[in-house]
Amino acid sequence: MKFFKRKKKKKSQDQQQTSEQSQVYSEILNQQLDDDLMTDTVIKPPPESPVQTPEDAESEDAKSESIESESAESESSDLLQTEQQAPTAAAHEQILDQRLEKTQANFGKKMKQLFSFKKKIDEELFEELETTLLMADVGATATMEIMEQVRKSLKRRNLSDSDAVLDALREQLTELARKVEAPLLIDTSKKPYVILVVGVNGVGKTTTIAKLARRYKADGHQVMLAAGDTFRAAAVEQLKTWGEREGIAVMAQKTGADAASVIFDAMTSAKARSMDVLIADTAGRLHTQSNLMQELAKITRVIKKNDESAPHETLIVIDGGTGQNAISQVRAFNEANKLTGLVITKLDGTPKGGVLFNLANEFGIPVRYIGVGERSSDLKPYRAEDFVSAIID
Question: What percent of the chain has pLDDT over 90?
């Protein structure tokens, strides 16, 4: 009898200890979520953890879902908070200069330092220029073509001063950047105008969709979102939360539902409600996963059954810090689904913003927007001259 009492008492102590550890872990978790709302931080549990019973495991699962939901709401609040009115053109350029300062430091400042010490045009100067371009992820092929055009420009104009080299370089970069400058215009004759958003994991697709929805709604369009990322519960919750806060309709089904069906139903609903724009999210997938890429092609086929002309825009979201891997991503996604536009995000956090020139030279796909921060206003329409000026001047 005493044995069972001791055993019961020990079990009670273990449960109390487990409860206290869970409470401490929960407080740490909430603090980390507050500090890192807009990042994909992976939060690791304490190194020592007691053996869980099935009841404890169910409790932890419920707690995890609750935390995901709270994180989505907090992120939405920060992202879609009320902002000041749109900046003027001069203010826009100044903001861009500040947000691209890492690329500017890696590219523009090195250029200026190089030309401040070398006043004579020689082969060493061109080699230094090539190295600087490559270090900024402009890419080997694009760098060779840019430098070839710079040499031709100098020879044609019979220029021999190093300042002329910098001017010729700026001219060539601007010319390449202009090839992919084409703002995304909503065709109001298409109702709804369907925008399919694709990309690999962690590039910011769901956040980009929320920013686009807010922008188009502010422009006077009736917007609907389709939660096509049915593999990740948090993605659906994020879209729902953003939709509720902004008064934007969101079509969603349970986690694990067929993504193509979700988007098809969303199109049907958008037509019935005379929506102007439908933005469809998709699950993040590695470009090397052929089965998932085939599923993306299936989504497009199902969309066309509802509207032969849709999707009217297929945007791929690229992390500006991925460097040369961005080329592989765009190539694979473009083969599976014909891409019509790029959104390059997180350019404020990388010194290698030159990847834009690499993408422009390799594919020539229009760059619709660039992301230079976490706020809605930091998703900016791409302007070639402003971009080049921000990283060089």
Answer: 42
User: What is residue 355's DSSP assignment?
Assistant: H
Quickly list H helices, the chain. 2-35, 54-79, 89-99, 101-106, 108-117, 123-135, 140-157, 162-178, 205-218, 233-246, 259-272, 290-306, 325-336, 355-362, 384-392
Q: Taking a C-beta distance cutoff of 8 angstroms, is the pair 248, 219 a contact? A: no
Which one has a higher pLDDT value, 178 or 72?
A: 178
Paired with 259 in beta bridges are none
Task: Determine whether 290 is exposed, middle or buried from the number of CB atoms within 10 Å of its CB (0-12, 13-18, 19+).
Answer: exposed
Q: Can you give 200-221 as a three-state secondary structure string?
A: CCCCCHHHHHHHHHHHHHHCCC
- Half-sphere exposure (CA, 13 Å, Cβ side) for 292? 16
> Higher confidence at residue 3 or residue 303?
303
Closest listed residue to residue 267, CA positions, set 253, 257, 279, 281: 279
Question: Predicted confidence band at 154 (pLDDT cuts at 50, 70, 90)?
Answer: confident
Cα 317 to Cα 212: distance, rounded to the nearest angstrom: 12
Percentage with pLDDT > 70 across the chain: 72
- Phi, psi of 368, rounded to the nearest 5 degrees: -80, -45
Cα separations in angstroms, 40 against 36, 37, 73, 332 = 8, 8, 15, 24
Give the gyration radius of the chain's Cα atoms.
25
Query: What is the torsion angle, in degrees rounded to the nearest 10, for the CA atoms of residue 274, residue 254, residue 75 and residue 329?
Result: -80
Convert the pLDDT of each residue in 208-256 to its tens digit.
999 999 999 999 999 999 999 988 878 888 889 989 988 999 999 988 8
- Find residue 250's DSSP bridge partners: 225
| Mean pLDDT for all residues in the chain | 79
Type of residue numbered 288: T
Question: Rounded distance, CA 260 to CA 5, Å?
Answer: 58
Q: Nearest to residue 309, comparing CAs of 183, 184, 187, 182?
A: 187
